[in-house]
Amino acid sequence: MNKYRSHDCAGITEKDNGKEVFISGWLHRKRDHGNLLFIDLRDHFGITQCVIENKNKYFKTLEKLKPESVLTVFGKVTKREKGTENLELPTGKVEIKIDTVKVLSEAKELPMPVFGEQEYPEDIRLKYRFLDLRRNEMHKNIILRSEVISFIRSEMSKLGFLEFQTPILTSSSPEGARDFLVPSRLNPGKFYALPQAPQQFKQLIMVSGFDKYFQIAPCFRDEDARADRSPGEFYQLDIEMSFVEQENIFEVVEKLMINLFKKFSSKTIMSNKFPRITYDEAMLKYGTDKPDLRNPLTIYDLTNIFTRDDVSFDIFKKLVKTGSKVRCVVAQKTKDKPRSFFDNIDKWAKEEGASGLAYFTIEKDNEIKAKGPVGKFFKSDALKEIMKITSAKVGDSLFFSCGKKSEVEKIISLARNKIAEELNLIDKSKFAFCWIVDYPMFEIDEQTKKIGFSHNPFSMPQGDLEKIDFEKPLNIKAYQYDIVCNGIELSSGAIRNHIPELMYKLFSIAGYDKTLVDNKFSGMINALSYGAPPHGGIAPGIDRIVMLLAEEKNIREVTLFPLNQNAEDLLMGAPSEVDKKQLKELNIESIESED
Questions:
Q1: What is the mean pLDDT of the chain?
Q2: What are residue 95's DSSP bridge partners?
Q3: Does the structure show a pLDDT above 90 at 446?
C-alpha cells in the first residue's frame, strides 16, 4: 500500500464489502443519473465502478472533469444492486461509494477517445500513441507481447540455450535490404551500419566455442512497410546451434512453437509434427513458399493439356507455345453456384493486375462436358485427362491462369486463397505450421539476368561437396528452410557454410571476387579459418508471432511505438533535421534533393 492506492482497479471484490479503500487511475467514462454520478476508474489492471451523490462536495469536480484525467478516489466498498452487476469484470459485483477525491492530473480535450474500440485514422493513432495504448485491445496486445517474450526466454533456458547480446553498431553488408548507416565522428568519412540481423555475430559465437545461443534481437532494415513488416526495426528470436543438422533445429523450434501457441491461444495446432514441403512442391501446389495449409485447395499444372488437339482454347495454346505455363485451382461442389460467383472471381483477378481467370464447371449428361465461358473449347477426352490430373469430379469448377511462370504462380496463389475465402473453406480456429525446405542456392535476377543468392549467402549447399556441379549453379539446393504459419513466414534459417574455400567458390558464382569477400566478411572468413564447428540456426519474428496470437492483421497492432507507412515517428517527430554543428562534427554535408 502507498498513498495512491490500497488496491488496484481490478483487485476489489465482494470480500472487500464494507471496507474503506482508495484507488487511483484514469477517468474511463462517466454516466450522469442526475442525483448520482457513476464513474469508471481504470488502471493497468482493470476497471472499478465508483459512485458519488450530488450532495458530496466533490460532485461538481467530477462532473466537470474530462475523460482520461487521473485521480485518487477514497470511499467504502458496497455491493451493487441486483440487475446492475457487470459479470464481465472481476469488480463487477461491487462499487465504491465515493467519500473524497483527489485530482492528480487533469486531461485536456481528447483528440481520440480511449473508451470504446472504434477505428481511427493511422496518423491520429500514431501521433497520440500514448492514448491509443490505453485502449483495451491495444493494451492487451502489448501485455501479450511482454508475456510471450518472457515465456520464450524461459523456454530457451530450459532447452539449454544461453542468451547473449550482439553489437548494434557494425559493418555494412552487401546482401539483404538497405542498411541504416551511422556516421563515425572519430573516423571521418566512415560509417557503421545498424544490424539487419545478428547473422555474422551469432555464427562467430558458435566459432567461439559456445553451443547454443539465443537473443531477442533488434534488427534494422530500411524497407517499405507491409501489414506483416514494420519499416525500420523489428525483433526476432535469434537462435544458433553447434554440431547440428537441419532436423535438430526443427525439433527445437517445433517444441518451442507448440508450447508457445498452446500457452497463449485456445486455437488448435493442425499437426504437432510440422509438414516438410520442398520449395519446388510449394511453388507448384500453392504458388508460394508461404502456403496457408488451413486452405485445402491445391494448384495443378495443366500446361501439357494445351498441346492437345482436342483442346481448341487458342489464346492459351499460343501462349504455351512461347513458354507460358498454365495452372489451375479446383473448387469442389460449385455446380450450383450462381454465375455472379464466377464473374466476381474473374473481376477480382483483373483488379489484381491479371487478365482474368478462365473457368468452367464439369458436368455429365451422356458424356463429360464443361459448362462456362471456355467450356466449349474442351472435348470430353481432354476433360477426362484434366479430371485425372486434378482429381476433379463432376460438379467441381476449375479456374485457370496462363502466363510467365512467376506471374502465373503469383495470381493463382492469390486465387487459391480468394476462392477458399469465398467458399468459407479456411478453418480459422487452427494454426497450420509447415517447413519449406530445399531452397535453390541461386536464382536468376529478373531485372539484371545475373545469378545471385536466393536466400542466405552463408548457407551450406546440399550433397557431397566433392561432387557438386558448380557449372550448373541453378541446380544446387541449399540447407535453407522457412517456417510458415497460416500463410505468414515466421522465419528463415539455414545450416551454415563453415568452410572458407567453399564460401569463396559460392560467392564467386554470385559475382563476388575473393578480395570483395575478404573485405566485406573479413571477421567471418578469418574466424572460420581457425576451426569452425558445423552449425545452423533460425530467427522467428517476435512481431509476427504476437500478431498471430493476438489475431491481428497488421503488425502495428502489436508494436508499442511503430513508424507509419513512410517510416516516420509521428509522436516523437522522427526523422528530423539536425543542427549544422552536429553535421560538421560528423564531416557530413546535407544536400537538398532536386524534385
A1: 94
A2: 78
A3: no
> SS in 3 state form for 112-148?
CCCCCCCCCCHHHHHHCHHHHCCCHHHHHHHHHHHHH
Q: Give counts: helices (H), strands (E), the chain.
A: 16, 24
Distance CA 179, CA 183 (A): 12
What angle in degrees, to the nearest 10, is found between the helix axes of 542-549 and 246-264? 40
Contact 320, 405 (CB under 8 A): no
All cell numbers assigned to 246: 537441419
Whole-number Å distance between alpha carbons of 349 and 347: 5
User: What letter would DSSP give residue 316?
Assistant: H
The sign of the CA dihedral 366, 370, 373, 376 is: negative
Closest C-alpha to 242, from 162, 167, 325, 147: 162
Q: At which residue does the C-alpha cell 481432354 appear?
A: 382
Residue type, 441: M
- Residue 363: which of 329, 328, 331, 393 has the closest Cα? 393
What's at 213, amino acid-wise? Y
Name residue, grid cell 574455400. Answer: 501
Give the H/E segment covering residue 537. Answer: strand 535-538
- Measured CA to CA, the distance from residue 86 to residue 46 in angstroms comes to 13
Banded model confidence at residue 228, pLDDT cuts 50, 70, 90: confident
